[in-house]
Structures are given as structure tokens and as C-alpha cells.
Amino acid sequence: MRQTITLLGATGTIGVNTLDVIERHPDRFEVFALSGHRQFQRLAQQCIRHQPRYAVVLDAQIALKLSALLSAAACTTEVLVGTQALCDVASDPCVDTVMAAIVGAAGLGSTMAAVRAGKKLLLANKESLVMAGTLFMQAVVESGSMVLPIDSEHNAIFQCLPVSYADDHRGGVSKLLLSASGGPFRGWDRDRMRGVTPAEACAHPQWAMGDKISVDSATMMNKGLEVIEAGWLFDMPASKIDVVIHPQSIIHSMVQYVDGSVLAQLGHPDMRTPIAHALAWPERMASGVEDLDLVALSRLDFAAPDERNFPCLAMAYGAAKAGGDAPAVLNAANEIAVQAFLDLRIDFTEIAEVVEHIMNEYRFSEPESLAAVEESDARARVMSVARIDRIER
Ligand code: NDP
Ligand code: MG
């Protein structure tokens, strides 16, 4: 039996890598739906190649252009429009597996729809779990959804955990050690970072990723979001999740045990490894990633994170500790600030300043529903926009 897959965010970096892996195993996978946003030409090519039943976009004009390209190629994929359509293809009874690879809070609704429908969820869209942690994990328990992490660090931890982790009171795990490359500005101070351009911030030394996560890696907010993500996925307090700078990005993360053992997962910095792992789990299958040559690598380095020059990491630990809607507010302020930086409206170092300001001003509460999470997200966005307007003036 082939696994039927909905791929949300097919046109992005994770989406393209996922289709690369799927294409290697036509006997195992069948594509049910693909979604994109602005890159309709790429989405059309993907539909022509993979022949999904549905393609989803958000904008009616883009849907028309996509439909025209598909008809011209005699492709029978049906084009659907809007956020409800994203939720529908994520929860359709024909679907076994959903890859959640939309970037940012825009992925929340469809990711939650997949969880509530009890799908096997391949989670790349970390922002949805950061925003709605309690409700997300409650829905996982209620629906029996299986969440497999795509984020390379969390996928590594998942691979290094003991089989008895959930049943046996964490199976002797004492700490999670999250790898961080340190990004393109590792070793820099804040003054040197002030004038960097979006192109410099997006030029990650090890990973080719979308702009938003690349900027998050440069500020280290990505690692902060990952601390919160790991807390939810592995039911671990942030105090037991350490970040270790490892510039080569070969060890993707580690699990420390009470007996002094540390288990690590290693591999090339290529997202096809965690994607193939999660797609095939509990089996293994080829991903297209070449073998690791440890002798050629010859050395692996480690250092402590620089929290003074990269304040976003400490802010994320603070949000994890505060709980409630604090992580959703952190995420919203960060998304607005990152976009303002990409739009050349604020300096790189002002991303952290905007987030810090919002985290100090916002009065946190416990969101009881997804609508309440979305309300906190919206309020934090309005505050962040106002803050950025003031910085610009
Ligand atoms: P990209 O920016 O490359 O792709 C994002 C995808 O989301 C695209 O398909 C894009 O469509 C779509 N999209 C953008 N905005 C919207 C919206 N408002 N509504 C619906 N769809 C939208 O991002 P990545 O692939 O790099 O990252 C995707 C997710 O995976 C993020 O949450 C990221 O944190 C996570 N992740 C990524 C890793 C990586 O190596 N790239 C590693 C670990 C996690 P279009 O391009 O057509 O406009
Ligand atoms: Mg990661």
C-alpha cells in the first residue's frame, strides 16, 4: 500500500526537498495535494510531474494563472483556493501523511487540521507548535496523530531517544543538547551586525533554506523557537534543553543520559535525511544524501552560545518559562520584525529590539482555544508594526 501524502508548502525549500525524496520511491508514495503561495509556475511544474488530485493556493488571481498552466499541459489536478481548502486537503480521509512545510503562523490552521484528523504529521512548520503548544499536544493525544519532527535537530533527538522514553519516565534521559551552527554572524558583536544586508543574513554557511528561517538562524531566534519546539515534542522543561554551538552542522543534536552516555545523530547538513527518515519511519529508505566521510571531515568543534550578542535565544527561553501565549507573542513579533528587516525598514539588530520591546509590553495570558492564540498573534503583530513605525520615524 502506498502512503498518500499532502504536502503543504510544496514550493518552498522543504517542499522541494520532500518531492526530491518522494520521487526516488514511486512504489511507496502517492501525492494527494500540493500547496503553494506566490510561486505558481513552480507549483504548476510540480503538479505536472506528480499529478496530485488537488493543488491549493490562497489567492484567486494566482489560482486562475495556475489553472491556465495546468490546462495547457492537460494536467487534471483540480485547483482549490483559500485557507479552508488547505485545512481540507490536510484532513481529507484519503490522506495518510501530511508534510507541514508552510512558513510561519500561516501554517497554523492547516497543521492543526492535520493533527485533529489524526494524520501522520511530518512537522517542519515549527511556528505552529511554538504558537499553540498546549492545544497542539492535547489535539495529538485526542486524535492519536503521530508527529514526526522534520527540523534536523528534533529529528536527531527523536532518533537518539530510548524506545522506553514515554512509558518509562524518560528512560534515563537527563538533557537534550540542541546543535546550532551559530549562523553567518557567529563570533560577531552587535555593532558589526548592525549594518548587515538581508542577502548577508540569508547566506547561511551550512544550510540552504527559505529567507525567514535563514534570518532566524542569523539572529539565533531559530534556535530559541527550537528550544520551545523541543520542549513540546519531548515533554522537557527548557531548563533541561541546552544549546551547543557546532559550526560544521554534522552532529544534528544529542541526547544525554543519567549514566554519562551522550547519543548523537550525524549526517551531512541536507534536509533530505530527516525528511526521508520521517517519511519511511519506522523503516529506513534512501534519501539521495551521500555517505559521511569522517576522515575527510577530520574535526568537529563545539562552543557555548553567545547570549550577549544574540539576545533572541534568551528571550525564547524566557517565553518558554512564561508559558501561556508568550511563545505565540514572541513568534508574532519576530515574524513582523524579520519581514521589516527583509523589506529594508529596520536594521538587523533591531529585530531583537522589536521583539524585546513587545515581550516587555505585552500582558500574557493562557489561551483556551485556537481562536485565542490567533487573537494573541494578531495583537502582537499590531504592536510590532507600531513599534517598527516608530523606529522608522
Ligand atoms: P520557504 O520560504 O522556502 O517556503 C515556504 C512555503 O510556504 C512555500 O511553499 C510558500 O509558497 C508557502 N507560503 C508562504 N507564505 C504562505 C502563506 N501566507 N500561506 C500559505 N503558504 C505560504 O520556507 P522553508 O521551506 O525554508 O521553511 C518552511 C518551514 O519549515 C518553516 O516553518 C521553517 O521554519 C521550517 N524548517 C525549514 C528548514 C529548512 O531547511 N528550510 C529546516 C527546519 C525547519 P511560495 O513559495 O509559493 O510563495
Ligand atoms: Mg533546525
Describe the overall structure.
There is one protein chain. By secondary structure, this protein is an alpha/beta fold. The chain has three domains: 3-149, NAD(P)-binding Rossmann-like Domain (Rossmann fold); 152-268 and 295-309, no CATH class; 323-393, Rna Polymerase Sigma Factor, Chain: A, CATH 1.10.1740.10. Helices cover 48% and strands 15% of the residues. Strands 4-3-2-1-5-6-7 form a seven-stranded parallel beta sheet, sandwiched between helices. It binds NADPH dihydro-nicotinamide-adenine-dinucleotide phosphate (NDP) and magnesium ion (MG).
Layout of strands and helices, then pairs:
Layout: E1 3-8, H1 13-23, E2 29-35, H2 40-50, E3 54-57, H3 60-72, E4 78-81, H4 83-91, E5 97-100, H5 108-116, E6 120-123, H6 126-143, E7 146-149, H7 152-160, E8 173-180, H8 190-193, H9 198-202, H10 211-219, H11 221-233, E9 241-245, E10 251-257, E11 262-266, H12 272-280, H13 294-297, H14 312-322, H15 326-342, H16 348-361, H17 370-392
Helix pairs in contact: 2-3, 4-5, 5-6, 6-11, 6-15, 10-15, 11-14, 15-16, 15-17, 16-17
The structure holds NADPH dihydro-nicotinamide-adenine-dinucleotide phosphate and magnesium ion.
Magnesium ion (MG) binds at residues 151-153, 226.
